[in-house]
Design a protein that fits this description.
This protein has about 280 residues and is α+β, with helices and mostly antiparallel strands. Helices cover about 40% and strands about 15% of the residues. Strands 4, 5, 6, 7, 8 and 10 form a six-stranded mixed β-sheet that branches. A four-stranded antiparallel β-sheet has the order 2-1-3-9. A hairpin with a 2-residue loop joins strand 7 and strand 8. The longest helix has 16 residues.
Length: about 280
């Protein structure tokens, strides 16, 4: 089998099983954008959270992981043929296949995973292993020494089918991608973003109702699978519409909402802006 037919055959086999693929050049990196897509001047993909053609309908292997596809007509197209001839290996988009790859880069990371994570399908790599789980999550590099998470908006190198059954994505892995918010930054923004106007106890709701409301707001934010920015803003708006004028909200409540938003990748600045915009909308 020739160098060209080997990665192409593998790519078509993966695509047939529902795994979006793309060619990777030497160094295990995607091919660069074509001239029409250079520096994303084409506007990128209509939705950069999922694969699909870019706005200029470029047929090339552009926009890295977002170029991954299961369409055999695209994979075997003349435009992709040149990439396959130069490809060093086959890449795939784990999130597009409803998968998460825990990339363990060395023996220490593998030893940690064996002690801390549920057993699942494993694939040997050059220096470590890929542990593959069923389910998608936020991708993040260096979640701990030698450990990367590759799922949504990421690509992984295909190194073979591996061994073992694929287990469901556990909370222990999801927790790895949650950034701990900075207490200093939260405190700083709480000082300049007041919780609410007025003072004293809420005149129309009980403390238990407020607690349930904050807990539900946290769940709404952490449960968002897309449109996180919009979800955070709408949730802040809902909380402030009920309690923004009566003074029952405290900095501790704001910190809880900010923490939930930051667990989904929002920055403290984004949280502060969303809170301020919600207050402005309500005239607070």
């Amino acid at each position: 089998m020739s160098k060209t037919s080997y990665p192409l055959h593998t790519a078509l086999s993966l695509a047939a099983s529902g795994v979006p693929v793309l060619p990777l050049r030497r160094g295990k990196v995607p091919f660069g954008n074509c001239r029409a897509c250079a520096d994303n001047t084409c506007g990128g993909r209509p939705n950069m959270k999922s694969p699909g053609p870019c706005r200029c309908r470029c047929p090339g292997v552009c926009h890295a992981w977002a170029a991954a596809t299961t369409d055999p007509a695209v994979i075997t197209s003349p435009t992709w043929a040149g990439a396959w001839r130069r490809a060093g290996c086959v890449g795939y988009h784990p999130g597009g296949a409803e998968l998460t790859v825990v990339d363990l880069d060395d023996a220490d990371a593998v030893a940690w995973a064996r002690a801390a994570l549920p057993v699942t399908r494993t694939v040997p790599t050059t220096r470590g292993e890929h542990w593959i789980y069923r389910g998608t999550m936020t991708s993040r590099n260096a979640v701990r020494p030698g450990v990367d998470i590759k799922s949504a908006m990421a690509y992984a190198r295909y190194l073979g089918p591996g061994t073992g059954a694929v287990a469901d994505l556990p909370d222990a892995v999801r927790a790895l991608a949650v950034k701990e918010p900075s207490p200093v930054r939260l405190a700083a923004y709480a000082a300049v973003v007041p919780a609410g106007a007025g003072g004293g106890e809420c005149p129309h709701r009980t403390p238990a109702f407020l607690e349930r409301g904050i807990a539900m707001a946290e769940q709404r934010i952490t449960g968002a699978s897309s449109a996180v920015h919009a979800t955070v803003y709408r949730t802040f708006l809902a909380v402030l519409s009920l309690h923004g004028r009566c003074g029952c909200l405290t900095d501790a409540h704001v910190a809880r909402l900010f923490t939930a938003a930051q667990s989904k990748g929002e920055t403290a600045r984004h949280c502060a802006d969303a809170w301020t915009n919600a207050r402005t909308t309500l005239g607070l």
